[in-house]
Design a protein that fits this description.
This protein has seven helices and no strands. It is an all-alpha fold. The protein folds into two domains: about 45 residues; about 150 residues, I/LWEQ domain (Up-down Bundle), CATH 1.20.1410. It is flat, with a radius of gyration of 24 Å. Pfam families: GCIP_N. It comes from Cryptococcus deuterogattii Ram5. This is Cyclin-D1-binding protein 1-like N-terminal domain-containing protein. InterPro entries: GCIP-like, GCIP-like_N.
Length: about 220
């Protein structure tokens, strides 16, 4: 709630400063006075009832950002499927912007992990009542989660760097596991089991690719 208060007060303060400028210039002070009251009404209307409501509101914003990143990831895969249609980029000398076959295979292998991370983040608000003592900690982890999720998706664009991908996946896994531990629900435990299975598949896939690379050499 502190953040909402801060944003509301700053908005009112900005309108007051503009009002003072209008008074100094002997302008239309009635209009600027009205804007101050509008800012006050907006703050009163938008303030959450309690800490839980404020955290739910912030969480929904985070969910929206994560969904945008997920949609971006799906577009990366779709663009690679339509690789023959370059949209005129080659004519502009900008080269191929789609994934190589190996990059596409890697992205497809990571897709279940990304999906599970998004599912966990979207599900956690259901258990806020059970995790009442950890709401602020969960919100802090959610803020980190948003950044890490975006980093994973960014690493899956063409010209991938496998070390960068593995690092980003490791970072978001740590955050997801911390969030899961703060909630501690049976359903979340099922998520952990499913995630471990998919992570094992990803590890096997990396090992097989390395073995193939050694054999080719």
């Amino acid at each position: 709630m502190g953040r909402e208060w801060k944003e509301g007060v700053l908005s009112i303060g900005a309108e007051v400063e503009r009002h003072l400028d209008v008074l100094e210039a002997e302008g239309d002070y009635l209009q600027s006075t009205g804007k101050i009251w509008e800012a006050i009404d907006r703050m009163s209307r938008d303030l959450s009832r309690d800490e839980k409501s404020a955290i739910i509101r912030r969480w929904k914003i985070h969910q929206s950002i994560v969904k945008d990143a997920w949609d971006e990831f799906k577009e990366i895969l779709e663009d690679s499927q339509n690789g023959d249609d370059d949209g005129g980029w080659d004519e502009l000398g900008l080269g191929d912007t789609s994934l190589s076959e190996e990059e596409r295979s890697r992205a497809e292998a990571i897709k279940p992990l990304l999906s599970l991370h998004q599912l966990l983040h979207a599900s956690i608000p259901r258990y806020f009542d059970e995790a009442e003592d950890h709401l602020q900690a969960l919100l802090e982890e959610s803020s980190k989660f948003v950044d890490c999720y975006d980093e994973v998706v960014s690493s899956l664009h063409p010209e991938q760097d496998e070390e960068e991908i593995n690092s980003a996946l490791g970072d978001i896994e740590k955050i997801s596991r911390r969030m899961a531990s703060l909630v501690g629900n049976v359903s979340i435990d099922k998520w952990t089991t499913k995630y471990d299975m998919e992570r094992e598949k990803w590890s096997d896939r990396k090992f097989n690719m390395r073995s193939l690379g050694v054999a080719i050499e």
